[in-house]
């Protein structure tokens, strides 16, 4: 998936798992693009090349940072340092990223085991899957977030 779709899926996952908390959506959105840190050509990878390049050389792309192990470890760590909602939102964003990549390719979800999970797809199917998911995520945000958004602005008016 492309980074915009990963970010949107992370926002939706973080928002939903924290019971409609927009801070959870923000954390999930960041976590939704973070797993591609293992790819030096990705949005985060270009910014953090001193981390991205060695990580890619050590474990490769779509391995450690796309795994259940990474989602659980980072989620638990953040929950210890902040609170459970932060940890849950982050883990949900990472998992949303992994699921998105499984719709457009294969990931080592059970890293360090070698099993790859997902679908091998053509570039055209990749594009179509990405766009369908992106529109679905935007619609979910509108559907689930609209009430919270309007309630917030109505409370400001009172």
TrEMBL record:
- Bilayer-crossing regions: 68-100
State the Pfam families in the record.
Answer: YdjM
User: What keywords tag this UniProt record?
Assistant: Membrane, Transmembrane, Transmembrane helix
Q: Matching InterPro entries, A to Z? A: YdjM-like
Do the record's keywords include Membrane? yes
What protein does this entry describe? Answer: Inner membrane protein
